[in-house]
What we know:
Helix content is 3%, strand content 44%. It is mainly beta. The protein is elongated and about 85 Å long. Residues 1-34 and 508-535 have low confidence and may be disordered.
Amino acid sequence: MRRWLITLGVLIFLLQSAGSDTAARPDRAVRLTAPAVDLEPLPPGARLELVVDHARNPVAMAFAPDARWFYTERTTGIVRMLIGGAALGFYRLPANASVMSERGLLGIALDPDFSANGYIYNYFTAYDDIIDRFDNRVVRVTFQGTQGFSPTMLLSVPLESNFTVIHNGGNLHFGPDGKLYVSIGDYYNDANGQNLNSMPAKIHRFNLSEPLTAPPDNPFYDGGGPRADSIYAFGFRNPFDFDFDPVTGALFAGDNGVACDDEINRVLPGYNYGWRTGYPACDDFSTDGPDPAYNTIPPLIAWPYSVAPTGVTFYRGDLFPEWKNDLFACHWKSGELHHFKLNAARNAIAAHTILSDPALGSVVCHLDVETGHGGALYFFRNEGDPGREFRDIYRITRDATVYASTFTPSTPTPAAGDLLTYTLRLVHYGMLTTTFSITSSLPLSTTLIDGSAQAAGGAIVGSSAGITWTGTITPNLTLTATYRVSVSDQIVAPTALANVMRISTDLAGEHERLATVVVNGRSVYLPIVLRGFMP
């Protein structure tokens, strides 16, 4: 495992080179081709926790703004509602499934206004025995109390034959534009990939109407024919899951190929991702890469062997600041949980690791992975039975995180007589009320201004040596304190004007870190993270 440390020298280099990087063309992603992937231990203080034992074939989950969360059972057609790990509600849809197949109750998404309307959207495979036909459906259910009511059919995409075992796709998520996006597999028909007149092998974008309708600004909208107006992007084989980058809003999706064409793609509107009749196996790894006549944007990453990417998500929580806005993906075949850091342009992978921490138990993810309540990372893990009908639901969590930082104003190179205001910001992400003590030493060449130390919570005391701030902080609370100093000597650039903070809580011992730096006249924010774990 490589360990990366940001030193002051590296920091100065980054400041001097900021803005000099030329981003890759926005319509072309850069593939990671390095064969070796480092194993990444879980962050300090993290723990692996079993949430639901022996769940019946869960496929996808979604978290409400309150304490509730939901997951789908593929083979039973049941959507379970839970608070914590306790199942307290459910509803059942007429899903048609068998244990050894991919069809059944698959995707779930909560309406952006779920707190007010209780709308839940599901994707599932159904069978109509009157006309002897299978179709994949999107329905809307109204959830009230502990039950779901009034399923409303919004979309039906008939199967092209009664061979419905694989390649149903089957996930749906809301985009940052408020539209509903739906992934549909190729129905085991390669020709669907390039056929813009068909629904399978695509990712679609819909208005929230009844039934679903296509927005006129979709890339292939022609008002009713011959093309499928709802198509957002095409050329997929089985895009099992996808998510939206919280930074740029771009869509990222997995796709299940053949021998060595499993991919994660950055999906842009109107682009072709290459799946087609006669697709050359291992095209991603040919000398020239994917055929640009079909793959109008190459994959973000492709694997040189079959892994079957399933759950795809961006980490949106605050419990693990080191993961903020990073991309995660599960592998069905290996159970690996892959962690990707993107570059500044958010169009390429900057770092790639696999989560593995034997000391805390194996990190194994076979299906969905999502950011859940409290910032924990939830995922599904197969129990190992031959039919893989039962799975355990785990989460990666930590009981307490105290996150402290300082800022300085964006002043020019400090000069004698200048006044600087320091702000201490303390954030607590976790589940335990925590007492704290923060001591912030004064930077060299500065003097504390009498009476300037103020705190929004707790008690703060200033002296010639620095500031001491003590108090109690509850979960999910942010406290701030400020103090002012005068610069007594001339500071000549390039130099660093820094203070040091010492933090202690009732959860851990003392930690000392460089906190605030002024480099070449520019203030730089360096976080201090203290993590405490209570068994």
